[in-house]
TrEMBL record:
<dbReference type="GO" id="GO:0036064">
    <property type="term" value="C:ciliary basal body"/>
</dbReference>
<dbReference type="GO" id="GO:0097730">
    <property type="term" value="C:non-motile cilium"/>
</dbReference>
<dbReference type="GO" id="GO:0005814">
    <property type="term" value="C:centriole"/>
</dbReference>
<protein>
    <submittedName>
        <fullName>Putative TPR repeat family protein</fullName>
    </submittedName>
</protein>
<dbReference type="GO" id="GO:0019894">
    <property type="term" value="F:kinesin binding"/>
</dbReference>
<dbReference type="GO" id="GO:0042073">
    <property type="term" value="P:intraciliary transport"/>
</dbReference>
<dbReference type="InterPro" id="IPR019734">
    <property type="entry name" value="TPR_rpt"/>
</dbReference>
<keyword id="KW-0802">TPR repeat</keyword>
<dbReference type="GO" id="GO:0097546">
    <property type="term" value="C:ciliary base"/>
</dbReference>
<feature type="repeat" description="TPR">
    <location>
        <begin position="164"/>
        <end position="197"/>
    </location>
</feature>
<dbReference type="GO" id="GO:1905515">
    <property type="term" value="P:non-motile cilium assembly"/>
</dbReference>
<dbReference type="InterPro" id="IPR011990">
    <property type="entry name" value="TPR-like_helical_dom_sf"/>
</dbReference>
Length: 230
């Protein structure tokens, strides 16, 4: 009988809950299971390895002189775009007005860069670009002589493909004015400056040279230029 009672007590026995232990002692067991093994918030710093972002310079303030100049240049390109859009609609008065604004704004940007010690970053290509647009619209608006005068001012500082384009434009204006010898002179200088990696542009110049030669009855020269194209 005693043995049976002892057996029943053994069957009903349960181990004491660890939750009760925490509750009575008032000390909670650390929840180490919530943290991944070996995890650190900055493993590179722990390993003594520098991040690639450590060497990046601090971001310049948004109102810095350089960023202000960059924003002004964006406005210049918008004015050039609006000017050429007006010219495509044959609204040359509006077109010249927009390009005039772009030229004035470019001068303002150059002065701004000079006054803030950024003279080395003056965008000379942008200056040439604005004046080229001015001359182009002058030619389209029936002012070819004024366009030639504008080109003469900027051709002295241009180089490479830009110089070739200016000479090509001057050749076209002279050809349309019936000044075929002057046109040929400019076309020759244009093809001399045109880079070899622009073959289609060089072919276009040669084609216009052939047309000027035909106007001057220089047949063999015209044939030679056509052979260059082929």
């Amino acid at each position: 009988m005693l043995q049976s009672k002892k057996f029943r007590m053994t069957q009903n026995w349960r181990p004491q809950s660890r939750l009760q232990t925490m509750a009575f002692t008032g000390t909670a067991r650390p929840m180490t299971s919530m943290t991944a093994a070996g995890f650190t918030k900055n493993p590179l710093a722990t390993a003594g390895v520098a991040s690639i972002f450590d060497k990046l310079p601090p971001e310049p303030p948004k109102d810095s002189p350089e960023q202000k100049a960059d924003q002004l240049e964006i406005n210049i390109f918008k004015l050039l775009r609006d000017g050429m859009s007006a010219a495509s609609c044959k609204d040359y008065v509006t077109a010249l007005g927009r390009i005039r604004e772009a030229i004035k704004l470019e001068q303002k940007v150059s002065q701004h860069r000079t006054m803030n010690g950024l003279a080395d970053s003056i965008n000379l290509d942008l200056r040439t670009c604005t004046w080229m647009h001015w001359a182009q619209i002058q030619a389209l608006g029936g002012q070819p002589e004024m366009a030639l005068s504008t080109y003469e001012k900027i051709v002295k500082t241009a180089e490479g493909a830009t110089l070739a384009q200016i000479r090509f434009n001057m050749g076209n204006i002279n050809h349309n004015l019936g000044k075929y010898n002057e046109a040929l002179k400019n076309f020759r200088m244009a093809i001399d400056q045109a880079p070899p990696n622009l073959p289609r542009f060089r072919q276009k110049i040669a084609s216009h040279m052939a047309q000027s030669c035909i106007k001057l009855h220089r047949w063999q020269d015209a044939v030679d230029r056509i052979e260059d194209i082929l």
